[in-house]
Amino acid sequence: MRKSRGLRLEDLADEGISPATISNIERGIAHVNSSKVYYLVQKLGLNMSEIPSILMEQEEELKDLKLTLDSIEAIISMGKYDEAMTKLEEIKIEDHHPYSAILHYIKGKCYAGMKKWNRAERSFSMAISLANQNRDQENIEAASFAELGLCCYRQNEIEKALEFTESGLDAFQESGGRGYVKYVLLRNKAVYLERLGRVNEGLRVIQEAWDQIDQIDESATVLNLYSARAELLRMAGQNEEAIKYAQEGLELSRRNKNYQCMFDMWTIMGSVYTSEVQWEKAERCFYTALASQGLLESEKALTDTYVWLGILYTEQKKWAKAKTYLEKAVTNAEAHNDAPKLTYALRIMGDYFKQQGKKDEAIPYYQKALKLARSYGYKKNQSQILFRLSQCYQETDRQEFEKCLLNMYEVQLETKNREADIFEEAE
């Protein structure tokens, strides 16, 4: 009513009511004395009997806006980002509006879909700030932290992604809306811990989510939890359990026609059989996974399967086949700007040459992998690559050999309390 009459806070303020109190009343701050509310209503020339009808009118406006925001969020999920942004730009509301945090959250999702990371991060940060100011009842703060984590993850900043995700879990309100956000956060935390090789921590998070899995109504989240659990169990050397959960996840993903998850499960099973020296079973699993190529949401995941096929054929000394798939792995990881997997693929390519005694050819791949690991702060991975480089230099370059060992020691000091890294596999 104040804005419709072109009045500022200062225009209504006097010795009986301050601009701050007027602002608190407008924002619904609970501790304002009710006499101040009546005083403000009178100053606006309103009758208290008019208030119910004004509120009903405002409630209808809010319902219309919420429907508009819901429709835009649906359009974003279809990948129609330009159309969604056009509609978002048409919405003009003040920061104290009840839906201002939701508006900025949805803008952030749109920018993230367009891979405009800086704009996305600014929008999510604004959503968090406004959610704190405007009585967040929809868990927009927690959801925005989850999205900030995903933005970092997609830019290969996994440690930072984990920090945002933990902030999201701290911010989540059990009594608020968007209850699914809690399970998305738990799933993402488990995946980030898996990528960082913090296996035991990841399994604890998975167990926390598993205890509540019947409450998760989003099949994709449930399937991702199966995938993460199977992978973490494999990394922990619990192969029988890994196969069990991979098979359960495979059946569930088949029923839901989730080809991405089916692909993941077949790859995980193939990696388990590779470590158990069951070559035929492993090969069958990997080629079944690749059969879903073209049906996947993203071909980024192909890197894992290519790497494992390279490992499989390297172990069998089928050098030509191994090299073909390792080259595919490197190319695919580069195409998708997937630094963790590219680091891994380069390291395995170095192993491929080292196992043949071709240390001079292995060194460039190790050096590229080391440069990436340093660039993104993958400490454990640096240690593993430095060890391999030291093996390559041991008999030919004493100075480089000692330099690698010293650098490896310094890195290990920084990570001595952490668990094995995801890239420790496939020696």
Automatic annotation (TrEMBL):
UniProt keyword GTP-binding, yes or no: no
Q: Where are the TPR repeats?
A: 343-376
What is the protein's major site of localization? Answer: cytoplasm
* Family annotation (InterPro entries): Bac_ResReg_Asp_Phosphatase, Cro/C1-type_HTH, Lambda_DNA-bd_dom_sf, TPR-like_helical_dom_sf, TPR_rpt
Provide this UniProt record's keywords sorted from A to Z.
Cytoplasm, Repeat, TPR repeat
Localization terms from the record: Cytoplasm
Name any one Pfam family assigned in the record: TPR_12
What SMART domains is this protein classified in?
TPR (SM00028)
Tell me which residues make up the HTH cro/C1-type domain.
1-51
Stated family: Belongs to the Rap family.
Protein name from the UniProt record: Tetratricopeptide repeat protein
